[in-house]
Write a structure and sequence with these properties.
This protein is an all-beta fold and about 325 residues long. The protein contains one helix and 20 strands.
């Protein structure tokens, strides 16, 4: 079994709940964003690419904070807490098994907690930035990640691929990996679109294709999709017309995983601002959205924020 097949074989073991669980769920509006804290998650450096475990107790992100623990240009860190109501502990670098002397960033986990997806420009990739994955056997050990694998030529290309979001479809379809890809136009330039690759029965990813209905035309770009676990809501960031700042967070929904996506909608104020708001990541329960911003009042550089919403009375509470 080759490296790409090994990745896929393990991914096939994970399970998610049926999309019917949240199909009729209703949520409140998003609340005012909250900075995750100077000296806690955020630092005077750039803190980016958030991802949180399903149980809400492990928070992963990337940072270019300096040595002594830095491995490269940007590294992946994890902060832990004993309960969802407790404050985050001090972040710790994942170390040289995951991080390289180059760049690792933009993190997400599979719902079962066994897989960590991230971007890297480490050696043995296919091009600029590739998507890699690391497996762990023990889902409550944040430092048990094994040597990462490149996700292969179905996902990665000579250009850049970044911001993976893994969705296991129990409505009869194959598991899917959503991500951003750089797209070049011969007479114009390069922008980015949202693509998706299907996990094949042999455990490799098939050739990716553009996701219909989500992308904006050149010269605008769309990146870092984050799909709710039921597959009915997808967040991403874009600089398309209608944005409040240099980039905004947008969302698209659908009533069934077999349906096309409805036209994307800007999350608006107070989530988006006149600054750059980007790299959204939706929590496992669908009620917290993490994102990155350089809006005023931060800790320095880019900071990670969160905004929350509540499930309305009578909505399905299945997770």
């Amino acid at each position: 079994m080759n490296a790409y097949a090994k990745v896929g074989a393990f991914l096939m073991l994970g399970t998610l709940l049926s999309s019917e669980a949240f199909a009729e769920s209703k949520y409140s509006e998003w609340g005012p964003p909250v900075n995750l804290g100077c000296g806690s998650i955020n630092s005077p450096s750039d803190d980016l690419g958030p991802g949180i475990s399903k149980d809400g107790l492990s928070f992963y992100f990337a940072s270019n904070r300096p040595a002594p623990d830095a491995q490269g240009g940007q590294d992946i860190y994890v902060a832990q807490r004993p309960s969802r109501d407790a404050p985050w502990g001090a972040p710790n670098n994942l170390g040289p098994t995951v991080n390289s002397p180059l760049t690792e960033n933009v993190v997400s986990l599979s719902r079962d907690g066994h897989w960590l997806f991230f971007n890297s420009n480490r050696p043995d990739g296919f091009g600029d930035i590739d998507i890699w994955a690391s497996y762990r056997e023990h889902v409550h050990d944040d430092f048990a990640w094994q040597t990462p694998f490149n996700l292969g030529p179905g996902v990665n290309s000579a250009g850049f691929e970044a911001g993976a979001s893994y969705f296991e479809n129990e409505e009869g379809g194959a598991p899917l990996l959503f991500f951003g890809r750089g797209v070049s136009f011969a007479t114009q330039g390069t922008t980015s679109d949202i693509w998706v690759a299907e996990l094949l029965p042999d455990g490799t990813f098939g050739n990716a294709h553009e996701v219909p209905g989500l992308n904006s035309p050149y010269p605008y770009g769309d990146q870092r999709p984050s799909i709710r676990f039921d597959g009915l809501e997808i967040f991403f960031y874009s600089n398309r017309p209608g944005s409040l700042g240099t980039s905004d967070i947008w969302v698209a929904t659908r009533k069934d995983v077999r349906d096309p996506w409805d036209p994307p909608v800007n999350l608006g104020s107070p989530v988006n601002s006149g600054a750059a708001d980007f790299q959204p990541h939706i929590s496992g329960d669908g009620q917290t959205l993490y994102f990155v911003s350089n809006r005023g009042g931060g800790c320095g550089g880019f900071d990670i924020y969160m905004t929350t919403r509540t499930r309305l009375k009578g909505a399905d509470k299945a997770l």
